[in-house]
Design brief:
alpha+beta, eight-stranded mixed β-sheet
């Protein structure tokens, strides 16, 4: 303001420059400075007062006495009222509204509690309502029958709410509410529909923080709705007119947990609509209060202008006898304030209304909505107001208003970076630096509610994103080339706005942490913030449930407080004073490195896990529920201990990377990734990132760089092709060096808020608030890549010669893809701006390092490990994968695990089958992580270099192949063994591992029981999947006229699983053929039966339609992705593997492969199936040309099989005469072998092969269902004799 102030003749004009001259009407350009030279006299005071009070020229006569407070008040009461009575007082026509007294005061509109159906909680002075029942409805105590009226609803949640108008006769039930009857009208932005008995599409989707204006125009019989002041159009025409007292009531219906803030006019509207009146009239004193604040604002402006260039003003004073402003300021300001407080105290409800409206606007104008702010003027106003007793209540209302404004303030592109809630947060932070105002806020009953409001951010819907990001570009886009640079500029501006808001959040939380409440006994800094955190987590602990309970905070609150804590722990505190006492005695002098980056000696208080705190007791633990663990594994004195370890002690020495080693972790090293190249050539980075724009990447903080300056990440990104039986002792680690459990201090300073407590809270906040956001971001980024591929494929097809009808359909499809891609690109851009800031990714990486080492250390202590909350593990895994998929990539994938997170590999391979983890879902989560990582070569290398993975993963995978985990285990085994089967491409199989193939072979050979159990489950599972596939195909045929996408997807998924299982079985026959060729032929017979079973289903006419019908192919997948060859190829490989092993085996006693196939009951089916394999178009199906030698080998096998089958048929004809005599000796299960074994104790008999096969899955007799204790071999010849 100082630089831009008006200057005349090189001198600042001071007080006189903005005063109007006596002849301003005749010559508006003539300033009072010029007229003052004409009018020699002491008139500057009178003219100044006229300007301040906005009075006509010379309406104040020459002063005959001093200018004191009494004179100012007298002037205000006489002259202002006389000159403003016809200009500021607007007489409103209130005819047409009736307000019933519901106990809230006369003429006060509120929710009529007698009208509530369901269960609605009303708090915050009858403004905030929340539904506790599945569906609740209520009306207000005011009705309208003519005129134009409105009320506003601020959405605290964005679920199912029906907002509108209803008559007194509209029935409310547990299932029906506003809009479900003919005499009620509602809008629901969750379902984007309007409701008047029947729903119809209307409006836009709403989000948390939206302000919905509900307007009824009974002059034109219309009802309309507004979203943030923007009309959604007329929703209902022809609304029935009603008589006096029988009009329309404001009414709402809320589903369970939905919350909204109702404003019927008791407070100023956020977005008043021209022509519509509030149901509750505003206080009559509001115009006067507004004018008085404007007078004070003009006084402050004069004072500021005078202070900008005091030298020139003093010269002017000496020449023209100016009265110094400092002599006038205090009596004028005090007089205005006295009149202001006197006016607002005269009317009930006016203090709150004026504080929320005119006063907040005045303070914002004084302070400035953008930097640089006018701290001097604001401090002067606050000092002045605090001299009056009524100001405390006003300031409390101001804090309420600022908090509410943070919830509803939208981001505006043209206002960046000082947009959104920034101005309200900046004003609040500066005011709350005063201990008196901070204490006032803390003493209020709504302290935590208001703090949540300050930490809120308004959500964005599709239309909001269109306004914020009007230009969209993506790699390969055919849009205007200027869109790329425009979008980059926009994302940069929005990133700046988000950074400013997050900076204010940190400053506010910093103030709360530093605040020492005036209580007895004395409390240390941080106690208030700790209480807030505990209560926040307590009420949001169920925020990850599908059906949210009442009272859950907005997701933006959880995200904001998480972001604040992450910055504190990663980047350090802005002021050294706060970090000293938080670090405790371990802190070094001058050590301002963030907690997560310190390295060296680490510690963690075990009491955080074993302490029976109310806000933690019902949180699930790795070993089960907390109460169950207290009974089954009680903790003695361990809550008074803390565990200490040296960073990196759980890693292998040869691969250890810590903050103390020469090579630094990724979070504390500079990375030479060329992100411009990522944007220009996105295909190279598809495996780890998605295509699109990124926000600018700020440098890491100076103190982190100073601490970890050594080492750099110079590896280049390379092309990446895409693609519980163990004993507890096995889960122990090698001795962990530098691990200690030490007692705490005798008098622990439990009141101190420690950094480990913030870390604990941050992990839960991540689990509750960030996990769903990162999942959404991952979905949109993946979907964007798919849409880009679809768009490119459509463009390619359009360039080919197609008929006009096909071209028309392709153009329609392209428009759909393009519109969806534009929306998706905006979503991706927003998530990159809000989630993937460089400093956030750095903090997340350091968090993963810290947490995984903590879990590995605690896993050595069984009694503590089972008490670890589940969210520690869930947050760790999700945070790891969010970093891995970050866009742009945080670091090159080749070093992502290598330089800091090798311990993550150690943890997941060691604990995915850990019986101490009671939740199968958590074990599956770890198993899924392995499944995802091993498909990329750069990550598979980390497994091959990890001792724990080498020693434990092969056996653990075979053991985990069970009812629940067979799908991820199958995927892992398949990826480790890629490229080794028949028909597999030898190129591009980047995730195959010769090391783990050998380890798996050794595990199977050296542990016969383990392999036998695995093979049995593999047989059963493959048989089940093929049966399910056949059943699903037939179900789909029954619904052929309605090709259900879900059923198609089910068939495709089951078919894929069958193919994967067959490939695993092929690997077993190649690496462990002796399991089928040596000893009992049971495995070989089961394998043979399975091959014939699959051949029969795949080649049958019934199932063939799945492969032949073009419409059943999955979206965006080509024909070669779904064909018979996918499952037929491993069958050929199995047969050839066994034939090769039979030829090269040195065992003299081995099972006859051809003989077993020839012994099957359906020789014609077997022959047809193998003939189909020989004639199959392998090149066209798998795009792989199998060698002629291999197919020739299969042909020879078929020829030999035919000869053997014919020979068996001849033998069967020759021995048919004796068959009847031997029927009683045959096994009644298979009718192929002699019944040479019996169950004990029931003595039922069958062949030994059938009994052995049955006992693999069931320990009961298949005749009487009795428990089998023993199986005895029976010599039938001896019995006959």
């Amino acid at each position: 303001m100082a630089e831009g102030s008006l200057k005349i003749g090189g001198l600042s004009s001071g007080l006189a420059v903005i005063l109007a001259s006596g002849d301003r009407k005749d010559n508006p350009q003539k300033s009072h400075l010029i007229s003052y030279y004409d009018d020699i006299g002491h008139q500057s005071v009178e003219r100044a007062l006229e300007h301040i009070f906005d009075l006509p020229y010379k309406s104040i006569s020459s002063l005959s006495g001093p200018v004191d407070t009494d004179f100012i008040r007298c002037t205000l009461k006489s002259d202002i009222f006389k000159h403003r009575v016809n200009r500021d007082v607007i007489l409103s026509n209130r005819d047409g509204v009736s307000i019933a007294d519901s106990g809230c005061g006369p003429n006060t509109v509120a929710v009529d509690e007698t009208s509530i159906c369901g269960d609605i909680r009303i708090f915050k002075q009858h403004f905030l309502v929340e539904s506790l029942a599945m569906f609740s409805s209520a009306r207000a105590n005011a009705c309208v029958w003519k005129g134009k009226w409105m009320y506003e609803v601020i959405l605290e949640t964005s679920g199912i709410q029906q907002l509108g108008w209803a008559t007194i006769s509209c029935p409310f039930t547990e299932n029906k509410g506003v809009g479900d009857a003919e005499d009620s009208y509602a809008f629901d932005g969750h379902r984007v529909k309007k409701w008047n008995k029947d729903p119809e599409p209307y409006g836009q989707s709403w989000v948390v923080g939206d302000v919905i204006g509900c307007c009824i125009d009974l002059d034109h019989n219309q009802i309309s709705f507004y979203r943030n002041g923007v009309s959604l159009g007329v929703a209902f025409y022809g609304v029935s007119k009603m008589g006096p007292g029988l009009g329309y009531y404001p009414a709402i219906s809320l589903s369970r947990g939905e919350r909204c803030n109702l404003n019927f006019g008791a407070l100023p509207f956020r977005y008043p609509i021209k022509g519509f009146q509030p149901l509750q009239n505003s206080p009559s004193v509001n115009p006067l209060a507004t004018h008085l604040l404007r007078c004070l604002s003009r006084l402050l402006e004069l004072k500021f202008m005078e202070n900008t260039d005091s030298t020139s003003v003093e010269k002017l004073r000496r020449l023209k006898r100016f009265v110094p402003l400092e002599e006038l300021y205090h009596p004028i300001a005090r007089g205005i304030c006295e009149e202001f407080f006197s006016a607002v105290d005269q009317e009930l409800g006016s203090v709150e209304y004026v504080s929320w409206g005119p006063l907040v606007s005045f303070l914002l104008e004084t302070f400035g909505k953008q930097a640089p702010h006018n701290y001097t003027n604001l401090d002067g106003v606050v000092d002045l107001f605090l001299e009056f007793g009524g100001s405390r209540l006003m300031f409390l209302y101001v804090i309420n208003s600022l908090s509410c404004s943070c919830k509803t303030a939208p981001l505006v592109l043209m206002e960046c970076p000082y947009s959104g809630s920034y101005s309200y947060l900046a004003l609040a932070c500066h005011m709350l630096r005063r201990e008196e105002l901070m204490t006032l806020w803390w003493n209020s009953s709504d302290f935590e509610f208001l703090l949540e409001g300050f930490l809120s951010r308004k959500g964005l819907n599709k239309q909001d994103l269109q306004c914020l990001i009007p230009y969209v570009w993506w790699p390969g886009s055919c849009e205007d080339v200027s869109y790329e640079s425009s979008m980059m500029l926009i994302t940069t501006a929005l990133s700046g706005a988000i950074n400013k808001i997050e900076e204010m959040h940190r400053e506010l939380c910093h103030l709360v942490i530093q605040f020492i409440p005036p209580t007895t006994p004395f409390q240390l800094p941080g106690s208030v913030f700790r209480t807030f955190l505990q209560n926040l987590l307590l009420k949001n602990r169920a925020a990850d449930h599908n059906l949210l309970p009442p009272g859950v905070s907005s997701n933006s609150v959880l995200v904001s407080i998480y972001t604040v804590i992450l910055h504190f722990l990663s980047e350090g505190f802005a002021e050294g004073g706060i970090s000293g006492w938080m670090k405790g005695s371990e802190a070094k002098v001058g050590d301002d490195v963030g907690f997560l980056h310190r390295g060296g000696q680490q510690f963690f208080p075990v009491g955080l896990f074993v302490k029976n705190d109310p806000h933690r007791a019902d949180i699930s633990r790795l070993g089960g529920s907390f109460n169950h663990l207290l009974r089954s594994h009680p903790v003695n004195d361990e809550e008074a201990e803390e565990i200490q370890w040296e960073e990196g002690c759980v890693d292998d020495e040869e691969t250890r990377v810590t903050h103390s080693t020469t090579q630094k972790p990724c979070c504390c090293s500079s990375c030479d990734v060329d992100f411009t190249r990522v944007m220009k050539d996105p295909i190279r980075y598809t495996a780890k990132c998605f295509r699109g724009h990124c926000s600018p990447i700020p440098e890491r903080s100076a103190h982190v760089a100073a601490e970890c300056s050594a080492g750099s990440l110079t590896d280049e990104i390379v092309d990446k092709p895409s693609s519980s039986d163990q004993p507890e002792s096995e889960f122990g680690y090698q001795t962990v060096q530098h691990l200690r459990i030490v007692p705490r201090m005798s008098n622990p300073p439990s009141a101190i808020l420690r950094e480990v407590e913030l870390l604990d809270a941050m992990l839960l906040l991540y689990h509750l608030g960030l996990t769903p956001n990162f999942k959404q971001a991952s979905y949109f980024m993946s979907h964007q890549s798919q849409l880009i591929s679809l768009l490119e494929e459509t463009d390619k097809q359009m360039k080919e010669r197609v008929c006009s009808e096909q071209l028309k359909r392709l153009k329609e499809a392209r428009n759909i893809y393009r519109e969806e891609l534009i929306d998706c690109a905006r979503q991706c851009a927003w998530y990159r701006i809000s989630l993937f800031s460089r400093w956030k990714l750095r903090g997340m990486y350091a968090t993963c390092m810290w947490v995984v080492q903590l879990l590995l250390v605690l896993s050595k202590v069984d009694s503590i490990f089972i008490y670890v909350p589940e969210f520690y593990l869930e947050a760790l895994v999700d945070c790891f994968h969010a970093l891995r998929r970050s866009d742009p990539p945080f670091v090159p994938s080749s070093i992502f695990i290598k330089q800091g997170l090798s311990s993550f590999v150690t943890f997941i391979v060691t604990h995915f089958n850990d019986p101490r983890i009671s939740s199968a879902d958590l074990r599956d989560l770890l198993l899924q992580s392995i499944s995802v990582l091993v498909q990329y070569r750069e990550y598979l290398v980390a497994f091959e270099n990890n001792n724990a993975a080498i020693q434990k993963m092969p056996r653990a995978l075979l053991s985990a192949f069970g009812n629940r985990s067979w799908i991820p285990v199958t995927n892992i085994l398949l990826r480790l063994c890629k490229g080794s089967g028949f028909g597999s491409s030898k190129h591009g199989e980047s995730s195959s591992s010769m090391l783990f193939q050998g380890l798996l072979r050794e595990a199977c050979i050296h542990d016969d029981a383990l392999f036998s159990a695995f093979l049995n489950r593999l047989f059963n599972t493959l048989s089940w999947t093929m049966t399910e596939f056949s059943v699903s195909v037939r179900e789909m045929q029954e619904k052929y006229q309605v090709l259900e996408l879900q059923q198609q997807r089910k068939c495709s998924v089951i078919f894929d699983l069958s193919c994967n299982l067959a490939r695993v079985l092929e690997f077993c026959t190649r690496e462990i053929p002796q399991a089928f060729l040596s000893g009992s032929d049971m495995n070989l017979r089961r394998l043979t039966e399975l091959i014939i079973f699959i051949l029969n289903h795949v080649t049958s006419a019934a199932d063939a339609e799945f492969f032949d019908h073009r419409s059943l192919r999955r979206q965006s997948q080509s024909q070669e992705k779904i064909n018979r060859g996918m499952v037929l190829a491993p069958l050929v490989g199995i047969i050839l593997n066994l034939l090769d092993a039979s030829i090269h085996s040195e065992d003299r006693v081995k099972n006859d492969v051809v003989g077993v196939f020839a012994s099957m009951d359906c020789p014609a089916t077997v022959h047809c199936g193998f003939q189909y394999l020989l004639e199959y178009n392998w090149v066209g199906s798998l795009r792989v040309d199998p060698s002629f030698t291999r197919l020739r080998q299969l042909e020879e096998f078929l020829s030999l099989l035919g000869s053997r089958t014919k020979s068996r048929e001849e033998q069967s004809l020759g021995s048919s005469a004796d068959a009847e005599e031997d029927d009683d000796r045959l096994c009644c299960i298979c009718y192929a072998s002699e019944a040479d074994a019996q169950f004990e104790p029931c003595s039922h008999r069958s062949c030994f092969g059938c009994i052995t096969r049955h006992l693999l899955n069931c320990q009961r007799c298949f005749f009487c269902n009795g428990t089998v204790l023993e199986v005895l071999r029976v010599d039938r010849k001896r019995e006959t004799v």
